[in-house]
Amino acid sequence: MEQKFFLKRVLSGIVGLVVEVLAPQPCPGCGVFGHGRGGWCESCFENLPWFAGSFCRRCGRPLGLSPGGLTPPLCGDCFNEPPFDNVRSACFYEGVVAELIVRFKYSRALYLLNPLGEILLEGFRRHFGNEAFHFITPVPLHRERLKERGYNQSALLAGFLAKRTGIPVNPKAVIRRRNTIPQVKLSGRERRNNLIGAFAVSERALEQIRGRSILLIDDVVTTGTTLVETAKVLKRAGAARVCGLTVARSGHS
Fold first, then answer.
1. Which of 63, 173, 212, 219 could bond 137 through an S-S bridge, CB–CB 3.0 to 4.6 Å?
2. How far apart, in whole angstroms, are the C-alpha atoms of residue 174 and residue 195?
3. Which of 193, 186, 177 is nearest to 142 (CA)?
């Protein structure tokens, strides 16, 4: 009975997503209809809080330094060699970008996949346009959280990016084996402890991961803990390269 209810909810979510994404939507910034870039008008899209300036070349954390030199610096944390190769974000988590992510994630505003997907795509072009990846994979949700929400926002974003770039998507490369409490209200140390052992790679996915270059997708990066723990299991499974890309980066570090 529970399985039927879950399947019904998932199918309902898919139908709702198709209807909402295909229906015409106004520009999320100014409310004007008739624009083709995921609904954004050119002015609003150009004036989004794009991630720029000096940042750590590995984790992408803003450093507040004057840009200069041929090799961007490392932040203090990245001298410890985190498991991912690098992480980048399209925008800062502020203004209309933060508002759209919250609505998309918690209010079932699935029609926002297109405008947020376009931001993610632009971030990919800016930061990874010259790199090759074997596949894209989202940060996974635990099945209990998936039942509650009805969808994984990171999986939807990964699917959007895969469709627009032609890079295959592998939604099940990593699984979430422990239903952790939400990270949003936890400190950095609490976030790390909360996610220890939360992710795993299934035996079925091992051959798809060994020696591959993989792009991890999530909606927001704050401390980077989720991407660290996800990248760990991919590297242990033999991935040659693991990078992360998010729609936005929170100023919290």
1. 173
2. 14
3. 177
Cα separation, 78 vs 234, in Å, equals 18
Please indicate, yes or no, if residue 22 is contained in any of the structural domains: no
Number of domains composing the chain: 1
CA distance 108 to 103: 7
- Could you tell me the residue range of the domain that residue 145 belongs to? 51-64+72-249
Q: Has residue 236 been placed in a domain?
A: yes
Query: Could you give the residue ranges of the DSSP H alpha helices within the chain?
Result: 2-22, 42-46, 95-106, 113-128, 143-149, 153-165, 188-195, 206-209, 225-236
Question: Looking at the domain assignment, is residue 30 inside a domain?
Answer: no
The structure tokens 């994984």 sit at 152
Rg (CA), the chain: 18
CA dihedral angle for residue 160, residue 109, residue 89, residue 251, rounded to 10 degrees: -170
Instruction: Find all residues with CB under 8 Å of 104, minimum gap 6, and list them.
Output: 110, 112, 113, 116, 153, 219
Collapsing DSSP to helix, strand or coil, 240 comes out as: coil
For the segment 207-237, what is each residue's pLDDT rounded down to a tens digit? 999 999 999 999 999 888 899 999 999 999 9
Whether 18 maps to a domain, the answer reads no
128-139: average pLDDT: 96
Helix, strand, coil: what percent of the chain each, to 5? Answer: 45, 15, 40
Between strands 199-200 and 175-176, the pairing is antiparallel
- CATH code, domain with 166: 3.40.50.2020
